[in-house]
């Protein structure tokens, strides 16, 4: 009796997994009819629930890029969501109109939801760090670490640091100095559990820089970012190569001071 149900549906239960996964599903092949995909948290009471109690996770009607390897179908659907560990989901295929029906072709991919590798914690003390930078990258090489994140600006090799939340606003400067003089880039994001699976505007990018000739004397390919770290907000600082295949020593110098 769902408010968004159809006279004809097909459903699949996605069994609970021990780790988080990024799940993608799409309707390709068969008759090009107007499909809709819904994802719910599965429960014995699901069939009798309505409205907010349905725990709808995601829904998608039309996506003209859903079936790139099949005859074009602007009425096909594709959907992606993060399947949390130990939770079972129900994937429902239905028609965009109540009486619509057709072949229920369904394709599914599942990717391990990997966190950023090499995450270290940066703690800003209650007393500001003065203007003397502290090195948080000693002994780290991005060549030993690979990124599983699907960012448009990601690299094959990265290092990352979690900047812990502070109770007051701070002005932060990060520089890629020391080590080999390779072409680095620095990105700063608001840190969230979903960061690795997000793209585009959803990433919450705060600052980014490729080359800054003032960052490290003698290294024109070093990077420097400055940003206001808002109170009670955690950030992720990511160092990677400007070239996706580039890697090297991941020296990171951090300075912080009070900001108003």
Please provide a written account of the structure.
A five-stranded mixed beta sheet has the order 8-10-15-12-13, with no helix packed on it. It has a four-stranded antiparallel beta sheet with strand order 1-6-3-4, with no helix packed on it. A four-stranded antiparallel beta sheet has the order 9-16-11-14, with no helix packed on it. It is mostly beta strands and 260 residues long. Helix content is 0%, strand content 35%.
Largest sheet: 5 strands, mixed
Outline: elongated
Continuous helix count? 0
**Helix-strand pattern:** EEEEEEEEEEEEEEEE
Order of the strands making up the biggest sheet? 8-10-15-12-13
Strand % is: 35-45%
């Amino acid at each position: 009796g769902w408010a968004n149900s159809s006279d004809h549906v097909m459903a699949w239960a996605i069994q609970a997994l021990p780790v988080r996964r990024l799940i993608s599903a799409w309707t390709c092949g068969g008759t090009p009819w107007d499909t809709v995909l819904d994802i719910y948290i599965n429960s014995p009471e699901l069939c009798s629930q309505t409205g907010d109690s349905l725990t709808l996770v995601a829904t998608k009607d039309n996506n003209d890029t859903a079936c790139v390897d099949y005859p074009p179908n602007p009425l096909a659907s594709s959907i992606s969501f993060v399947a949390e560990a130990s939770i079972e989901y129900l994937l429902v295929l239905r028609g965009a109109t109540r009486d619509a029906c057709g072949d229920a072709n369904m394709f599914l991919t599942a990717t391990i939801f990997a966190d950023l590798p090499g995450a270290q914690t940066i703690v800003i003390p209650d007393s500001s760090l003065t203007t003397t930078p502290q090195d948080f990258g000693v002994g780290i090489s991005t060549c030993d670490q690979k990124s599983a994140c699907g960012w448009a600006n990601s690299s094959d090799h990265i290092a990352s640091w979690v900047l812990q939340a502070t109770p007051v606003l701070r002005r932060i400067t990060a520089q890629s100095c020391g080590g080999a003089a390779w072409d680095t880039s620095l990105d700063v994001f608001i840190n969230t559990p979903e960061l690795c699976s997000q793209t585009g505007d959803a990433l919450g990018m705060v600052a980014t820089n490729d080359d800054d000739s003032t960052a490290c004397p003698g290294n024109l390919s070093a990077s420097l970012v400055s940003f206001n770290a808002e109170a009670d907000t955690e950030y992720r600082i990511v160092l990677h190569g400007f070239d996706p295949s580039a890697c090297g020593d991941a020296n990171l110098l951090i300075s912080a001071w009070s900001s108003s």
